[in-house]
């Protein structure tokens, strides 16, 4: 990993390695079950799974950017946004990512990309309209730390297994089960294992990615606060963005919810949500950490 001036986080690195190891084990399990149950069709399954994995990793940044409505902009089109990214990249000593804007009133930002040189940082029009310059820099520093720590790439790979498990479950339920039951009870019973194993793998991979996601958000807050030296600006941005979410129409929040793991702050259409299933730590946790960092920076 290219070194930057963002504060390293050994806890994040350990969690990323552990998550990838466990996800890899689950990946082997689900492929092994498919190979055992599908007999002569296993080469096609392995080829299909491998192709999907490569496509997901290689094109993940474009898929995410397109899905969230990101439009790449030039310095002439968004001088203030580019200026803020330029200053932060110079401060962090890292390559400048592509810069984009998403036309959405939901105040948020996100970063994608499998490497620093392939990265993209995007802010929504709702965020740009609501935040002061120092607050915006805090949010952008948060997103750039995701790029520097490469946890964006890890989240993309980790989430792939859940997508694959869900797809296999639907395929088995729609197609394989009916044909298996028509042939013989033994094959039908065996094919029942496919959606069962896939469902278990999906739940485990979902919980693993949520655990990693919550920690990486705290890590990005810490790294951004230390880089800019203004944890209070990031805290103000967090408070403002979270408060503004309540004013956003429910329809817009529901459209944004599938991408919460990539966003600076979660978009929720409901008033409450389970901490276990949340992609982000609570606002209180994030503000408490920023308060401690502010106290540390204020010491002689």
Automatic annotation (TrEMBL):
Binds 1 zinc ion per subunit. Its EC number is 3.4.24.-. It comes from the Bacteria. CDD domains: M48B_HtpX_like. GO terms for molecular function: metalloendopeptidase activity; zinc ion binding. The chain crosses the membrane at residues 12-35, 41-59, 152-174, 186-208. It holds the Pfam family Peptidase_M48. The active site is at residue 143. The keyword Hydrolase applies. The keyword Transcription does not apply. Residues 76-291 form the Peptidase M48 domain. Its cofactor is Zn(2+). It is an enzyme of class 3 (hydrolase). It is a multi-pass membrane protein. Keywords: Cell membrane, Hydrolase, Membrane, Metal-binding, Metalloprotease, Protease, Stress response, Transmembrane, Transmembrane helix, Zinc. GO terms for biological process: proteolysis. Zn(2+) binds at residues 142, 146, 217. GO terms for cellular component: plasma membrane. It is found in: Cell membrane. Coiled coil: none annotated. Belongs to the peptidase M48B family. This is Protease HtpX homolog.
């Amino acid at each position: 990993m290219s070194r930057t001036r963002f504060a390293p986080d050994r806890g994040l690195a350990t969690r990323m390695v552990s998550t990838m190891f466990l996800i890899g084990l689950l990946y082997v399990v689900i492929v092994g079950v498919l190979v055992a149950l599908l007999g002569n069709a296993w080469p096609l399954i392995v080829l299909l799974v491998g192709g999907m994995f490569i496509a997901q990793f290689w094109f993940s940044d474009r898929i995410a950017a397109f899905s969230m409505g990101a439009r790449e902009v030039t310095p002439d089109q968004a001088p203030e946004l580019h200026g803020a990214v330029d200053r932060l990249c110079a401060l962090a000593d890292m390559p400048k990512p592509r810069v984009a804007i998403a036309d959405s009133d939901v105040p948020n930002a996100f970063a994608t990309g499998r490497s620093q040189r392939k990265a993209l940082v995007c802010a929504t029009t709702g965020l740009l309209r609501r935040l002061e310059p120092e607050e915006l820099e805090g949010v952008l520093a948060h997103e750039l730390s995701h790029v520097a720590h490469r946890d964006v790439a890890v989240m993309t790979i980790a989430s792939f297994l859940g997508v694959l498990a869900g797809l296999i479950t639907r395929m088995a339920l729609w197609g394989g089960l009916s044909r298996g039951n028509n042939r013989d009870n033994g094959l039908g019973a065996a094919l029942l294992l496919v959606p069962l194993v896939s469902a278990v793998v999906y739940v485990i991979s979902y919980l693993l990615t949520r655990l990693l996601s919550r920690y990486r958000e705290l890590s990005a807050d810490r790294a951004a606060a230390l880089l800019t030296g203004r944890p209070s600006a990031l805290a103000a941005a967090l408070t403002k963005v979270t408060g503004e979410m309540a004013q956003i129409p429910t329809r817009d929040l529901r459209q944004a919810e599938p991408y919460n793991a990539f966003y600076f702050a979660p978009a929720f259409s409901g008033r409450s949500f389970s901490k276990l299933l949340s992609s982000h730590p609570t606002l209180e946790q994030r503000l408490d950490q920023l308060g401690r960092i502010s106290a540390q920076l204020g010491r002689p």
